[in-house]
Please model this.
Amino acid sequence: MTVRVFAAATLGQIPLVYDPATELTHMPGRNVPAGRVMLDDEEVAGWHTIAQRQVNTRIPFNLCWSPLVRCNLHCPQCLDDKTLSESGATERERIADVLATSDVLGHDISGGEPLLLQSLPQLLKVLSSHRAAVSCTTNGWHLERRAEELAPVLDAIRVSFDGPDAASHDHWRGTGSFKRAVAGVRAAVTHGVPVQLHTVLMQSTAHRAQSVADLAADLGAVGVTFLQMLPIGDGAGLAASELVEDADALRIVRSVQPPHGLRVRLRTRELAEGFTVIRADGQVYHNVRGATGIHAIRPLVTAADLHLPLPEGAGR
Ligand code: SF4
Model:
């Protein structure tokens, strides 16, 4: 049993519990008080999941904020738009304040590489000051160095792995990346931060899914999320050769035998459609139908700017 922080709220008259490690939102099987709550993750995992499209609300359950374009790595499958200009420190503080006052249940700070931000602990603290659960998605390079400082303000961390060993991971992320990411996960676990491994399923990496799950268990992670590759950013150039169809991805992930205590899930492209991202330029972006692209909608001025309709046909 692992007791950790979740976010609970009622949206569209449906009680919801958001898991900052898996990004999944559940319908609780009992009365859960609103706000940041400590829950047994085994109990939460047993509750049915629900998507925003199934609830009468325009408030996203969770979103990703990418305050940086900068990254210390150069992965060919990166989703980021490196041409965007980054907002400065004052604008980042303003955005954190706006997000904190929204009714969104979960905020994930991604990048670029979020651990390059010195002010990351302060931003996470602001984001969790209302009721949301907070996480980061990182390549793990700087995690060993910053785990102790981040542990008090992080509800979960997601660390990206493209393979279960140095040869397969570093092929995509560069020499030394695997060693640094492993050291980072170990440090986060040591400091009590729940860790979720993230692996993008590609044609040339999918056959290692079981080994990634085994690695996650060895490192003490709570779970693995396999993500369907999205043809966005640099990833668009790889899609023709590396994209795995949803049916194949489901088959691959279902074939993984989860080591004891580890949860394994697939984030399909369908689940990614309509997802809300605040990018480094301070604008609200939305994944289009099928998550085959991402569009800027409007600048984030108030929390109401997050209330977007889902793409037409989403959840068909
Ligand atoms: S995928 Fe992540 S680690 Fe790789 S270049 Fe993009 S932001 Fe950096």
In short: Residues 59-302 form a domain with the TIM Barrel fold (CATH 3.20.20.70). The first strand starts at residue 3 and ends at 11. The chain has one domain: 59-302.
